[in-house]
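Q: Could you write out the predicted structure for this multi-component system? I'm mainly interested in how the pieces pack against one another.
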Amino acid sequence: MTVVHDNLEKTEAKMRAEAVSVFYGDKKAIDEVSIDIPTEYVTAFIGPSGCGKSTFLRTLNRMNDTIPTARVEGSIQLDGEDIYASGMDVVQLRARVGMVFQKPNPFPKSIYDNIAYGPKIHGLAEGKDELDAIVEKSLRRAGLWEEVKERLQDSGTALSGGQQQRLCIARAIAVDPEVILMDEPCSALDPIATAKIEELIAELNGRYAIVIVTHSMQQAARVSQRTAFFHLGKMVEYGRTSDIFTNPHEQRTQDYITGRYG
Amino acid sequence: MSERIAPTRTPEFEARLKKRYASERRFRALGLGAIVFSVAVLVFLLGTMTFNGIGGFQRVEMEVPIDFTEAGIAADPAAMEQPGALASLEAQGLRDVVQYFAEEELGEAAAEELGAQAWRDVATAIIADPAVLQRSESFWLPASANLASGYEGEGSPEMQALAAGLYEEGRLAKNFDPGFLGRSDATNPQQVGIWGALKGSLLTMVVTLLLAFPIGVLAALYLEEYAPKNRWTDLIELSINNLAAVPSIIFGLLGLAVFLTLFPNLRSAPLIGGMTLALMTMPVIVIAGRNAIKAVPPSIRDGALAIGASPVQVVFHHVLPLALPGILTGTIIGMARALGETAPLLMIGMRAFVATPPDGFTSPATVLPMQIFLWSDEIDRGFVERTSAAIIVLLLFLLVMNGLAIYLRNKFEKTW
C-alpha cells in the first residue's frame, strides 16, 4: 500500500517516525507507520476503535515502556535524535514530549501543586516567586487562570471535568515541552467543555507541535491542519485535513469519513 | 391489532415485586440484628471488665500516724535528691520506725499485717518532701494480702475480725491506688503494678513497628511496582500469604531458634520480642499494602510518568501517599494482633517474673498480655481484680494505638 503524502509543502519535521511497528507479545498492533510531525500544525490521528492510533501516539513519548509485553521496531526521531536509542533518557524525553490523557487525571493535590509538580521535579524554577510565575503562566495559557486564581490551594480533583482536563493541559505546558500528545482529550467531556479545549488547542498551535487522537471526525476537521487515517494498525492516508475530508485518495478513507464503518 | 398487556402490569409481576421487597426487608432486619448483637456483646464485655477491674485500681490500706520528731531520722534535703536516698533512710531504721508506730497506734496484731514494703511508701513521701520529718504525719499504707482478703470477707476468721475492727475505727479502707500504674510485678497483690509490663509492651511494639512497617511497605511496593510477574513472584506471593496464616507460636519457635541463638544474652528482651512479633506482623502489612497499592488508579501513574517523573518519583510522590491509608489499616490490624500476642513470647522467655520496669530494649521485660496470663494463674484472691485492671490497661493501650493510627489514616486520606 502507499502512504500518500499529498502535495504537502516542505516543513521541518519535529518528530519523524520511520517504518514503526509495535508488537504486544506476538500481536502486531502497528504495522510500519511512517509519518512526519511538524511544529507548525496540529496533526490529528483518526480511525475506528482498535486501529492503533492511541498505541502509535504512546510510542512517541515511550509511554508504551510501562507495558511489559510491548516492543517497538523502526525508528522515531525527535529533532533528528532517535528516542529509542540506548543513550536517550526517558525522563528527559517525556519532559520534552508531554501528554494529555483520555480521562482527566489531575493529581489529588492542590491546583497549584498539580502545575508546580513538573517544574519542581525537573528543577526548572529557582525559588517560590519563579514557581508562582510558571504556575500562573501555565494556567493562563490553558485558559484556566481566571476561573481558579482565587482557589489555587483547592484540590485539583474538585474541579469540573472540563476544568480538570485544562488543568492537565496546563500541567503538561508547565514543563515547557516541545510536543504535546493528546489522547482523545475530549471524549469524557460535554460539548461546552469540548469547545473550550478545542479553542485552547487552536491557541497553543504553533507554540508546540500538537498531535491529537480523536474519535470525532468533526473535531479533527475543526482543530487540525494535518490528518492521518489509521486502519487495522496501518496508516492508510496522511495529508492536509481539508484534502482528507473532501477529497481522500483511498477508498477506505472515503468509506470511513462517510460513515460506512467506524 | 391485538391488545398489548404490559409485562409489568400483570398480577404475577406484582406478586414477584412483593417478594422482592420482602426479601429486602428480611436482609435489612438480619443486618440490623447482627449489629445489635455485636454491640450488646461489646457492651457486656466492657461492662463486666470495668465493673471487675475498678477494684484492681484500689488496694486495702491502713492509716498509720507517724510522729517524726520522736523518730530521730535525719535527712538533709540535698541528700534526698541523691540516688542513694532510699538506702540511707533504710539504714537509719525507717522500717522499724514505721513498724513501731503501727504497733503503737493500731496494736500488735494489726502491725503484723502491715505490708512488708509499706515503709517504702513512707520513704517516697520523705524523699518528695523532707520537711515532713519536722512534724507528725498520717500515712495510708498497704495492708498485707491476708488482711486484704479479711477485708473482703474471706480468709481466716481472725483476719476477718481484725479487719472488721480496724474498719470500725476508720483505720482500714480500700483506697484508690495510683501506684498501680507506676509499680511493677510483685508476689503480693497489694504491691503489684502494671508499669513494668506496660513499658515492656511499649518497647516491644516500637521494635515491631520499626521493623515490620518499613520492610512490609518496601516489600509491597517492590512486588507491585517493580517485580516482573512470573513464577517466582507468584511463589513469593503464595509464601507471604501462607506466612500470614502461620500459627503465632511457630514464630515463637523461630525466634527461639534463630534470634536467641544469635543473641543468647538477650533472653526476655523487648528487642527479641519485637523482632519475633515483627516477623508475624510483616506479612499482614505486605498483603494490605499490596492491595492498597493496586487500588491506586493507573491514570495517576501515567500522569506523573508523562510529565517526566522517574519511576521512583512516581512511587514516592504519588503511589505511596495515595496507598498510605490502606497500608495504615493493615498496620493497625497487624499491630493490634501483635500487641495481644502471648504465645510467641512464651518461647523467648518473656514469661519471666520481672519486678523492675525494663531500662531499655535489651533488659528483661514482660508484656501486658503475658502479665495478665501470669496474674490469672496466681492463687491469691487479690490477683483476680488486678488481672481485670491489667486487662483494662491493655484495652486502653490498644484503643490509644488504634486511635492514633486511625487519626493518621484520616489525615492522609484523599479522594480522586
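A: Regarding packing and overall arrangement: Chain A has a mean pLDDT of 89.
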